[in-house]
Amino acid sequence: MRKIWNFAMAAIVIVASAGLLAACDKDDLGTDNPTEDVEKLKRAKEYGRWIDGVVGQQMIDQLDYLFQASAYRDSLRNGGDTEVVMKRQFSNPNMRPPQFDENGEIYYWQYVSENFITHNGISLDKDGAEWTVHSYMRRFWDAPSQPEQVDCQWTVSRNNGVYTLSGGMIHNGLWEEYFTLTEISDVKFTTGLVSINMFPYGEGIKRTRRYCFDGNINITTEKNKGNRPNTNINITLNSLNGYNSKPYNRDGEPVFLPDRAYFTSGSFNASVYDSKEPLHIVADFDKSEIKYLDL
After folding, report:
1. Which of 98, 113, 251, 275 is in the most buried spot, having the most CB atoms within 10 Å?
2. Cα–Cα distance measured from residue 4 to residue 179, given in angstroms and rounded to the nearest whole number
3. Which DSSP state fits 75?
């Protein structure tokens, strides 16, 4: 699958996720580091923050929507409070509300892309579940070299308490001109619950789903402008723990600022091949640092 990203918009993503590893932003590299090393570290931070802010965080957000659609189905079938589920995940006024099928189940939501659900009738909280999402995104910009629409498909299945995420997701930062797609190679993950303090937007605690990921994600970007080369990024997730850290407590609607770090422990390694010298990135969330290693 072809994956496309406009690197010109990277600054927006970097600003949006500036809280990821603020400790790395100190100008304390010292005088002994050669200029080449300073440039590589800068590139490593930019790529690392983009992987965190666009790929990683949006992967969690998309999974949250799918799990909440399953929770809505469970509440509907068991006489639970479906309104609580709606407020928890589907109350963003900037997006269209979900759509329901003839059985009253959620089968569509919009976040970055348009997403349609099919499943095998088993709750995602139970072994044997298999839920598939078909995603579509239409371009916003006048880019004749781009298709009018891209699509992909990703699946979450559960066996022996462990989930498998496979397929491709659409990832885009704010107003990015081109499409960004990832190819996920059987990422394994487990889930649990975490409590989030909703201060300063209100009182109380939000309970949300926590994920721990292991596996591989591959990205290919196409510039489609002049003769600039494509970029290839290969990512390995190592016990990467994260959750949607946004507080939700303003009339039941999501609050998106201030931005809070999604990932709290674990790491990812990424090998980047672009127009410059190949780069190997290590992002360690236990130490709150991004560093580079020569390939």
Report:
1. 113
2. 5
3. H
